[in-house]
Amino acid sequence: MFQGSMVAMATPMHDNGALDESGLERLVEFHVRNATDAIVAVGTTGESATLDHDEHHYVMRRTVEIANGRIMVMGGCGANSTWEAEALARCALDVGCEAALLVTPYYNKPTQEGLYRHFRHVADRVPIPQILYNVPGRTGVDLLPETVDRLADVANIVGIKEASGSLERAEEVIERCGDRIDLYCGEDARNLALMNAGARGCVSVTANVAPDLMHRMCKAVLDGDPATAEALDARLAALHNALFLESNPIPVKWALQEMELIESGMRLPMTPLSAQHHETVRQALKLADAL
């Protein structure tokens, strides 16, 4: 259903932290022009943790409206309350998102059985294609391959964004259930390696600022052109590193401001990129022809 370069899109904000609708329109149009394969609205990079429910719903709805069928939209619907995740997934369905992305419940640290029941609950109650999201470094809980295997039998669970940092983990998930669900890379520095191992694409922070290169890199892998994919990934490597010098989305929002696509706004507890990193990020943008 989804493949290629899927941008984990930043949520534009004014300098005072209020949502910036014109900035949102600029970003969506930027991705349409540059052939991004899908947009993830209000994921981690979209500062989902600090948007209230009304704002969360608004950004998903407006992203779908602006996209207007020209690019697929996935709604970030994860929560550490199963009932909240269900409500967000239902909103994603109601506003016209093609899928819901559901991160593992954070902070609670549920068991594997708890994870299975959480995702199964949402899938059974909201008839929208759903993509699991495993990022133990942020959530404090790891969705193990055997649990993914169980969930792969649920009809509307169609994929997993894997961001554990382990190539071996991704390969095990693909071996166990790659014939039933698709795997997407959730760490930009490993996009090429995981796609070569069988991932169908990536949910990318780097695609915020270098969407054309990311699309072309993913397409080259899917088209069976490894030389082109490696050459394109080499041009992106500095960005993959620079955009994580501080916690995401701090560097990528600074980069988007440098590109004059958004204002500087973000919400506490996130703070602006430290001055010592500005030139590193700026040079990485230049290497990728983003500036």
Which helices and strands occur, and which strands form pairs?
Layout: E1 4-8, H1 21-33, E2 38-41, H2 53-67, E3 72-76, H3 82-95, E4 99-103, H4 112-125, E5 130-134, H5 136-139, H6 145-151, E6 157-162, H7 167-177, E7 182-185, H8 191-196, E8 201-204, H9 211-222, H10 226-242, H11 250-258, H12 278-287
Parallel strand pairs: 1-2, 1-8, 2-3, 3-4, 4-5, 5-6, 6-7, 7-8
Helix pairs in contact: 1-2, 2-3, 3-4, 4-6, 6-7, 9-10, 10-12, 11-12
How would you describe this protein?
The protein has an 8-stranded parallel barrel with strand order 1-2-3-4-5-6-7-8, surrounded by 4 helices. The protein contains 12 helices and 8 strands. It has one domain: TIM Barrel. The two termini are 32 Å apart. By secondary structure, the protein is an alpha/beta fold. β4 (99-103), α4 and β5 (130-134) form a beta-alpha-beta unit. Helices cover 45% and strands 13% of the residues.
What's a quick, concise take on this entry?
This protein is 45% helix and 13% strand. It is an alpha/beta fold and 291 residues long. Strand 4, helix 4 and strand 5 form a beta-alpha-beta unit.
Q: What attributes does this structure have?
A:
45% helix, alpha/beta, eight-stranded parallel barrel, TIM Barrel, 291 residues
Tell me the fraction of residues in β-strands, as a range. 5-15%
Mean pLDDT: 97
Total of helices: 12
Query: Superfamily at the CATH H level?
Result: Aldolase class I
CA radius of gyration is: 18 Å
Largest sheet: 8 strands, parallel, barrel
Name of the CATH architecture: Alpha-Beta Barrel
Q: Looking at the structure, what is the overall shape?
A: globular
